[in-house]
Write a structure and sequence with these properties.
With 415 residues, the protein is mostly helical. The protein has 15 helices and four strands. A four-stranded mixed beta sheet has the order 1-2-4-3. This is Ste24 endopeptidase.
């Protein structure tokens, strides 16, 4: 067993230990007493059930991480990656096509490994806690659509990387970065118009007091919406949410039907004000910009590591190739990705506080957003006491209690 193979396995083990350690700390952080700030909304039995839900999801996450580690250690230690590469290379398909076939085979294999986990999570855990409304037909249709879309998108991105690095060995990373950045921007337009409707039905919010209230709110903010749509989220889950999609003239708000059913009109308006805040304050372009910068950094690092013979041979590949280098790079990047993800989430959490503050001031009723957040946390069985390390590494939203504290301060200032 070579030094470089041990190094790759060590990186995977390091990431696994950090991840599972933080998940264990998160479980230790669960409390039995209902936090005072939410006692007016969440009773003891509901809170206990939410703690049990967090425990079940965390245990499944640790099991999945263990499965991933075992699969990758097996792939590396057995030389399967090199055997697969040699078998595909013998077909004489050319470097780009061989690379695409290699990643397609690897991706399909990993998908099949994870499929039982998805089935268990949906039809056992989510079902046990009353969230799942997904039928077998919807589940398998989702899987098929996701596979096709993933294959198309991954094919485009991987082809871009492979072709540019072949054509321009020294500057390929730059051209690939520019091209992928355009794809990222294009997806902001394509996703709400054509991709999301493949999975859900979006219908205009019906005329009435709620629509008028939301329209007036957007007008007061000077914010033009292409549409306010209700998405049939109840097709898959009882969980409630809302999200913003699109750029420019494609901007639209989507409210889960479960959200409209769970919250009062004033609370729905507060949630909309929060989403408007993200856009008025420029959070969406900043997050997209951060993603583009990360992609550029990854490609620049890949340019430095793609020809590292020790790492490539350590992973079991007999000959160096772009797809072999890219596979090794993904493995080396795992711990780095954890740190970059933490940086991204730090910015995202700050933006959530800013959007909360904006919503409180736009509606001139901080209590409406406070009430909405409490009801959503109760409805979705959110973990109210996550460990700080779990928040730092994985949470894109601040803990509910921190958001309530900030909004209470805003309410005091408002008075």
């Amino acid at each position: 067993m070579s030094f470089w193979l041990l190094g790759l396995m060590g990186l995977l083990l390091l990431h696994y230990c950090i991840h599972c350690g933080v998940e264990w700390l998160n479980l230790r952080s669960l409390s039995t007493a209902v936090p005072v700030a939410v006692q007016d909304t969440i009773d003891a039995s509901t809170y206990a059930r939410s703690q049990a839900y967090t425990t079940s999801r965390t245990r499944l996450d640790i099991t999945t991480a263990s499965l991933d580690l075992g699969v990758w250690l097996l792939l590396l230690g057995s030389g399967v990656l090199g055997d697969l590469d040699a078998w595909i290379g013998a077909a004489g398909l050319g470097e780009t096509v061989s690379g695409l076939v290699f990643f397609a085979a690897l991706g399909l294999g990993l998908y099949l490994v994870h499929l039982p986990v998805h089935i268990y999570a949906t039809f056992r855990i989510e079902q046990r806690y009353g969230f799942n409304t997904t039928t077998a037909g919807v589940f398998w249709a989702d899987q098929l659509k996701t596979l096709v879309l993933t294959a198309l998108l991954a094919g485009v991105l991987l082809s871009t990387v492979l072709l540019f690095f072949q054509a321009f060995p020294r500057t390929g990373w730059l051209w690939a970065w520019l091209s992928i950045s355009l794809v990222v921007l294009l997806l902001q337009v394509v996703t709400p118009r054509w991709i999301l409707p493949l999975f859900n039905r979006f219908t205009p919010l019906e005329e009435g007091p709620l629509r008028q209230q939301l329209t007036d709110l957007a007008h007061a903010a000077g914010f033009r919406l292409a549409s306010i749509a209700v998405m049939d989220g109840s097709k898959r889950s009882t969980k409630a949410n809302a999200f913003f999609a699109g750029l420019g003239k494609t901007k639209r708000i989507a409210l889960f039907d479960t959200l409209v059913q769970t919250l009062t009109p004033r609370e729905v308006a507060a949630v909309l004000a929060h989403e408007i805040g993200h856009n008025v304050l420029g959070h969406i372009p900043r997050l997209i910009g951060g993603t583009v910068l990360k992609i550029g950094l990854f490609l620049a690092l890949f340019a430095l590591l793609k020809d590292h013979q020790g790492l490539i041979q350590g992973a079991g590949f007999e000959e160096a190739s772009l797809h072999a280098g890219l596979t090794v790079f993904f493995l080396v990047l795992t711990p780095v990705g954890l740190l970059l993800g933490a940086w991204h989430n730090t910015r995202a959490r700050r933006y959530e506080f800013e959007a909360d503050r904006y919503a409180a001031r736009l509606t001139e009723a901080p209590q409406d957003l406070i009430s909405a957040l409490k009801r959503l946390a109760a409805h979705n069985m959110a973990n109210l006491t996550p460990h700080p390390w779990h928040v730092a590494l994985y949470a894109s939203h601040p803990p509910l209690l921190k958001r309530l504290e900030a909004l209470d301060q805003e309410a005091g200032d408002h008075v």
